[in-house]
Amino acid sequence: MDDLTLDEALEELESAEDFLNYFGIAFDAAVVHVNRLHILQRYHNYLAAAGALPEAEAARRETYAALLGRAYQDFVASDALTEKVFKVFHMHEPQTAFVPLSSITLAAPVAAAKAGDCGCGGKGACHSSEAAARG
How many domains does the chain contain in total? Predict the structure, then answer.
């Protein structure tokens, strides 16, 4: 891959180990084995947060290597459950929701089908019609 440009080389990389080897980052295979997807997702998140990357290939390579090293180190010092890279880790956390007062309305009462019918669907044989007949 030495004769490829940075962009061409990145197209060829498939695994976390490939990325770490390409950028010359020493790694513990056991850490990568357990956290490979988390490392790559964190790397992706760091790249997205970095904003505009340098135009020069050497500077961009250095930035990519630094961000990948940082992503790998996150999982050397911690674990996937603590780092919560993927959405699934946030699903059972308490959620807050804002409901504006203006969106709260009262349901309109159901109109009685006929006099003496409370509208519950009992067709005159419900509790309120029986009470009215007894009263």
Answer: 2
